[in-house]
Write a structure and sequence with these properties.
Elements: E1 4-8, E2 14-19, E3 25-30, E4 33-34, E5 40-41, E6 47-48, E7 51-54, E8 78-83, E9 86-93, E10 103-112, E11 115-124, E12 133-135, E13 138-144, E14 151-155, E15 161-165, E16 170-173, E17 179-183, E18 187-194, E19 205-209, E20 216-222, E21 235-237, E22 242-253
Antiparallel strand pairs: 1-2, 2-3, 3-4, 5-6, 7-13, 8-9, 9-10, 10-11, 11-22, 12-21, 13-20, 14-15, 14-17, 16-19, 17-18, 18-22, 19-20
């Protein structure tokens, strides 16, 4: 059974809707404006919009039937809503034949005035597998484009343009101070990260993609190159290890 939780900032102008399935953020609104394109299912059955957590992998892998791992399809184990603006959920990923490791996830979402912070903690629990567990976690936000012809992504704090793109996908390293600007017609989003830059020695990357660029653009921070998941160059968890990733979206309205 899927439940939904509404978070509201102190001034009641910033809101977020969180699903009990994988802690997916289904909406993020500032002054009534959809900063994230609303979560929905297309007529073809594809999930679009919002922001889901990609775990234990980003992208495709023969270990999983769908892209971006399994967390977004796992029902929460427990939930605590600490205040009107903050929630914490826990999820258990049991070992399977194709991914025989036991993982535990904790997702936290907090909203403040014009701001939302999302944190994903991944723990490797004791299991019967002596090998290390391959891991590559990230966030998958869909930003509402408002019909913009292109979206400009700039380094923070220099303002240097890194990417301008429409309907194309590309990947680039996260440089600067671990933050970027996303320039939209009526607002600017400052996206900044904790524990993404050089996590465990792995250089983080930003993936940019859209299959409907007039409606939304995906600007996705991940731990490292998604082509390295489950390879000897990738990242792995031992029993007892934990990886913590955090992303904050701060919105500045232009009008």
């Amino acid at each position: 059974m899927e439940n939904h939780y509404v978070l509201t900032s102190k001034d009641e102008k910033t809101k977020s809707i969180i699903s009990s399935l994988g802690g997916t953020i289904q909406n993020f609104l500032v002054d009534g404006n959809n900063i994230l394109f609303p979560y929905h299912t297309t007529p073809e059955g594809n999930i679009r919009g919002g922001c889901h957590m990609c775990a234990p992998c980003f992208g495709t892998s023969p270990r999983f039937p769908k892209k971006h791992g399994v967390l977004r399809d796992i029902s929460m184990y427990s939930v605590q809503k600490y205040a009107p603006n903050s929630i914490s959920m826990e999820f258990e990923q049991l070992p399977t034949e194709k991914y025989p490791w036991h993982l535990w996830y904790n997702t936290d979402v907090t909203v403040k005035d014009n701001e939302m912070t999302t944190t994903l903690r991944t723990y490797r629990l004791k299991d019967n597998n002596k090998e290390k567990a391959p891991i590559n976690i990230g966030f998958h936000p869909y930003f509402a484009n408002e019909g913009a012809k292109y979206v400009e992504v700039m380094e923070f704090p220099t303002g240097k343009t890194q990417w301008i793109f429409s309907k194309e996908a590309r990947s680039a390293p996260l440089d600067g101070k671990g933050a970027i600007f996303i320039e939209m017609p009526r607002w600017r989003v400052l996206m900044y990260f904790n524990s993404f830059i050089e996590i465990n020695g792995y250089r983080s990357r930003m993936v940019l993609w859209s299959d409907d660029p007039k409606k939304y653009t995906c600007i996705e921070p991940i731990m490292y190159d998604y082509n390295l998941f489950d390879t000897k160059e990738g990242c792995f968890l031992n029993v007892g290890d934990v990886i913590i990733l955090s992303m904050t979206l701060r919105v500045e309205m232009k009008t």
